[in-house]
Amino acid sequence: MSGSAPELNAELIVDSAVPLHPVISPDGRWVAYAVTTTGRREEHPTSALWVTAADGSSPPRKLTAGTANDSVPRWAPDSTSLFFGSDRMERGVRQLHRISLDGGEPETLTAWKGGISDHLPLGDAHMVAVVAEDEPTEEDEHRKIERDDAMVWGERVPYSRLRLLDLDTLQLRVVDGLGDRHVVEVVQRPDGGPLAVISWACPEIDPGTSTAELHVVDPGTGAVHDLGRIEFEASSPTWWSLHDTWRVAYLAVTPPGPVGGLAVFDVTVPAADTAGEHRNLTAGMAVCPTELVQVADGPPLALFADGLDTAIYRLDPGLQRFGRVSTRDGLVDSLTVSRSGEVVAALASTAYEPMDVHAGPPGGRLVRLSDTRPELRQIRWGTQERLSYKASDGLDLDGLLILPVGKRRQDGPFPLITLVHGGPDDRYADEFNLGSYPSGQWLATAGYAVFLPNPRGGTGHGHEFAAAVAGQVGMDEWTDIISGIDLLIADGVADPNRLGIGGGSHGGFMAAWAIGQTDRFKAALMGAGISDWGMQQATGELGTYDSGLSGSRGWEGPGPHHHDRLSPISFASKIRTPVLILHGENDTNVPLGQATFFHRALRHFGVEHAFVVYPREGHAIRERNHQIDRLRRTREWFDRWLGDPASDQNRI
Fold first, then answer.
1. Segments in the chain below pLDDT 50
2. Do 430 and 330 contact (CB within 8 A), yes or no?
3. What is the pLDDT of residue 103?
4. Is the pTM of this model over 0.85?
5. Do you find a cis peptide bond into 404, omega within 30 degrees of 0?
């Protein structure tokens, strides 16, 4: 590469364009998608809609200006127009709009006070299924004015209900048969028949996601047929037919849950008012389904995490099992398919190519259609290697190593930073590792080697691998990580005296856990991490899931409890490693109290640390200036404690 290549900086990362929500037209000719920026400059995000030929025969063109948040495009059945959500009428409140494929001014279809959370154009072309909360009543408005806003659990709950929009009259009517169920997903049978609907008992993520039910709804009469309870984190209802009998498949966590990764389940839609058997169609597979998509003229397609890569599978109706169609290097996400099933579109990324929209036959080559980050092609990147190694108990593991820019293995040893992924039911695919969170290439351009491990508990290696951390979070996955670090030290890649560790969410927990188990690390980053599992179960969004990871609940009699043995706070007295703690003020997934508790413990024991809280932010940091601060602050932290690689005699 040329020595005059531009230098990577934080602004270039957070100002980059990012494609979202690709959707292929029913006729397979067009792909629409949204484009936004990584960092949000204003109070509300902005995004624009684009459309391009699915065969790459014409370049992408912009359909909307991008001055509002135009997102989630959905094609009309005749492929001539797009329905989409936008807050152009009132910022922060999404309404339904429609725009012609030829462009022009969008038509506003709803003016619902609470906004529209989801939409699905139906097959008769005169109706759209809409998911929206109840509008506030006059009493609600009066209470707001009078500041009589005491929050009583169970009262004035903002349920999202299934409503049907008549495109001729623009009138909305609610489907009453679902009662006080919170609707989360809707899909129509491909022949224009009934809707498959997933609902929760209430809008709260916990217990909502563990109280999911599957329904069949007749959009003409509003009649509802219940198919029974479905497993934890159910999503992606999908119709398919076997011997002229309709079935509904969906994704959910394998029982007994809630830890163990997703599986594809399936149930027959009977004529009588009964619920059939829900069968696991992916039992025993050594890969993990991540997405399930409906094909109008055939059986469903699915994306599977397959180690460091992603595979497309198709359901074999006769065997009622999934068979591999193709495998693509790196990450494939947001799969969408034409009516015939002959063309798919998706977001895809490989080691040195950022996420972009691709399309092609499911069993063939996917052609890149968008080019959202061309400015990154001039940057020098660190070499990204695939790793394969054994855990201490012999389990096969994988991961990635990114070398400092311009360096080879034999130029080591290098200061090594281990970045642990979130989840834990997630993974590192062999994709382009650059983002607004301190990422592999961001640190590699500063002279660090970066280890991206995939310990047990993650996706890509089947149910047993994912379920291995149930009730044992931080245990074997920690030894998996340290085994990889020791391998890199033995290979001469990592300097044992200059080791750092960090991560966000579950990765933040693992960083806090690691420094309570060993003093080998000279610096750590804890981003939105859990320090106390008991408190997390009490205040986090996913208490059921968190108790499944940590193995007990605080109300199970007097302690100490099992989860106390798995909480980093319990080992705070042993910590000597300097820690950078970063957290969003309004995080509801991992509440700020987790970071505050850890900060107080470190202060009590005199441990060097910095505690940074980002106002207005949730679990993900969205604002541009906060993202820039996080990138710079993290690199400066590691430079301070590991020694700035740029000052080494082996400088880049």
1. 1-3, 649-652
2. yes
3. 87
4. yes
5. no
